Amino acid sequence: MEKKTINELASYVDALRPIIYINNFDFKMVDDLIESVIGKAKCLEYNNALGEIDFHSKHQIRKYNLVEFLEANLENGFDNETYLVLKDVHGELKSPDVIALLKRISENNIYKDSYHEMVFIVSEVTTIPIELENYITIFDVPLPTQDEILKIINDFITDLSISVDSEVINEIALSFKGLNEFQIRQILNLAYQDGGNITKNDIHLILREKAQFIKKSGLLEAINFSGTIDDVGGLDNLKKWLYQKEKIFSNLDKAIKFGVDVPKGILLVGMPGCGKSLTAKATATLFKIPLVRLDVGRLLGKYVGESEENMRKALQLSEAISPCVLWVDEIEKAFAGIGQSGGGSDVTTRLFGQFLTWMQEKDNMVFIVATANDISKMPPEFLRKGRFDEIFFADLPNSDERRKILNIHLKKRGKWNKEIDLISLITATEGFSGADLESVVKNTIEAAFISGKDTITTEDLLDSIHETKSISDVLKEKIKNLRTIISKFDIQPASASDSKG
Ligand code: ATP
Fold first, then answer.
1. Quick check: helix, strand or coil at residue 75?
2. Residue range 173-191: mean pLDDT, rounded
3. pTM of the entire structure?
C-alpha cells in the first residue's frame, strides 16, 4: 500500500470526517488500508450477510441487522475512540432508520467534543442518500503507480522463481496501467498458467482481459473499426499532426523515458459529414490502440450521485484499458444545458466539471478525440489551451480534397476508372461535404447496377450530383454562422493551407 494513499485517508480521519465511503471491491486491501490509518483503535465490523464480525479475525460475533448493530454501538464513541466498518451495506442506505442512525453518529461527532466515532462504508457501489450527502466523504483508492506495478510484477516473478527479461517487464507494466492490484495479479496468474512464464505476447492477453472489463461495465462502448487513415480524404494538416503523434504511441515506453509528454487529445470542430468521426476512428487504427466511445447519455442515472459515479467509473475504465483512444462524439450535445439551473442540467454541469478536471489533471495514456458541430454551444473552458493539445476545424472540402474523397469512395467500391473526368466533378461539387460526395458515388453505382451497366461514367456521376441536395443548400445559414464563430477562435484548419479552395 502506497504511503500517499494511507496519508490521504489519514488526513480525512484526522479532519474528523464522520462517514468515509470507500468505493472498492477489494475488501482485504481496504482492511489493510484502514488498519494502517487507525492503528490499534477499537474497530467493529458489520457485514451484510453475517452481522457483527471481528475486524481482525473475521469471526462472526452476533447475527444483527444493520439497525440493531448501529443502535448497539451508537454510544461507544463517548467511551472510546471507535471506528465502524460497514461492508456492502449500499442496499440498506435507503432505510430511514439506518439514515437516521448514521446522521446521529455524524452529528455527535461534529457537535460533541467528547464523542469520537467514525464510520467507514466499504462497497463497490456508491449510493449516497441526500440526507447524508453533507456527512459523507468519498474516498477512491488510487490505482497503482508505475513503480508499484513494477513491484507487483517483480514480487510475482520472485515468488515463482522465474526469470523475465527487464524490457518485457517494463512493457507489460505499461499495459497494466489503470488496473488495480487485484486485477493485475489475476492476469499475471492467467498468463503464467498459460505458458509457464511471462512473455511479451502476454500483452495481448492483457488487452483481451481489459476488453472484458469494458463489456462488463456497460459504461463505455468498444468499437471495432477496420478502416485506416488512408480512408480519410484531405484534412492533411490534421493527418500530419496525427502521424507525428503516432511516433510517440508506437514507442510509448521509450518516449516517456525520453521525457516526452503523452499527447492528451484533440477537439475536431466542423461541418456535419466532413470526416470528424471517420478521423476519430482512424486515429485508433493509426496509433494501433483500442477505440472506445464515451456516451454521456448512457451515464445518466436515476439516483443522486449515480451519474457522477458512472462518469468516474467510465473515466477510470478508460485509464484501465489505456493506451486507448477515447472518442466523445458530439461533445457539445453531451454536455448541453451546462450552467443553467435546475433538474437534469445540474447533473450535466457536475459531469462536465468532473470531465474537465480529469482532462486537466490527466496523467495517463488515454488519447481523447472529441468531435463537435457547433462550437457556439461549447463552454469556453473547453477551448482553453491545455485541455486539448490542438483544436482543428474541418471545413467543407476544398477542390483538391473533393478529388481525393471521390477517388477514395470510387476505389473502395471498385468503380474507379481513368475515363472519369474528375475536374468537371470537382467543379460541380463545390459546397458538398465528404458525406455528400460519398452518397453521390453510392447513388451512381446503385443506379448503374439497376439499369444493368458494367461501369459508371462522368455523366452518370454528374446526373447524381445534380440530384443531390448538398449540405451547403440545406444548412446555408448554419454553415455561415459556424465559420464566423470559428474565425474568432485560435483554431487550426484541418486541411493543409496550400490546398486550393
Ligand atoms: P457529423 O458531425 O454529422 O457526425 P462527421 O464530420 O463526423 O459528421 P463522418 O461521420 O466522419 O462525419 O462522415 C460521414 C461519412 O462521410 C464517413 O463515414 C465517410 O464515408 C464520408 N466522409 C466524410 N468526410 C470524408 C473524408 N474527408 N474522406 C473520406 N470520406 C469522408
1. coil
2. 84
3. 0.69
Check pocket membership of 276 for ligand 1, CB cut-off 6 A: yes
CB distance 438 to ligand 1 below 6 Å: yes
pLDDT at 476 over 60: yes
Sheet holding 492-493, edge to edge: 220-222, 291-294, 324-328, 366-372, 265-270, 390-394, 492-493
Q: What is the pLDDT of residues 44-71, one digit of tens each?
A: 999 988 899 999 889 999 998 999 999 9
CATH architecture for segment(s) 399-474: Orthogonal Bundle (1.10)
Compute the distance from residue 435 Cα to the ligand 1 centre, in Å.
5
CA distance 261 to 274: 30
Using a 6 Å cutoff on CB, does residue 235 contact ligand 1? yes
pLDDT at 172: 82
Closest C-alpha to 16, from 140, 128, 112: 112
Summarize pLDDT for 169-178 with one digit per residue, the tens: 887 887 787 7
Alpha-carbon gap, residue 368 to 126, rounded angstroms = 27
Any idea which residue has 494511507 for its cell?
6
Q: Is the CB of 420 under 6 A from ligand 1?
A: no
Name the residue of 225, 268, 274, 400 whose CB sits within 8 Å of the most ligand 1 atoms, as the mutation to test its pocket. 274
277 lines ligand 1 (CB under 6 A): yes
> What is the DSSP code string of 17-53?
-SEEEEE-S-HHHHHHHHHHHHTTSEEEEEETTTEEE
For residues 187 and 176, what is the distance between their CA atoms, to the nearest angstrom? 9
Q: At the top level of CATH, which class does the domain 3-139 belong to?
A: alpha beta
How far apart (Å, rounded) are the C-alpha atoms in residues 191 and 199? 8
Ligand 1 pocket residue status of 269, Cβ below 6 Å: no
CA-based nearest residue to 358, from 300, 408, 417, 317: 317
Would you kindly state where each structural domain of the chain is located, as residue ranges?
3-139, 146-209, 229-394, 399-474
Does 3.40.50.300 match the CATH number of domain 229-394?
yes
Total residues belonging to the chain: 501
Q: What pLDDT score does 267 carry?
A: 92
Cα separation, 78 vs 273, whole angstroms: 67
The rounded Å distance from CA 277 to ligand 1 centre is 6
Percent of the chain with pLDDT over 90: 45
- Is 233 a pocket residue for ligand 1 (Cβ < 6 Å)? yes
Q: What is the mean pLDDT of residues 397-403?
A: 94
Amino acid at 245: K
CATH topology match: 3-139 vs 229-394: yes
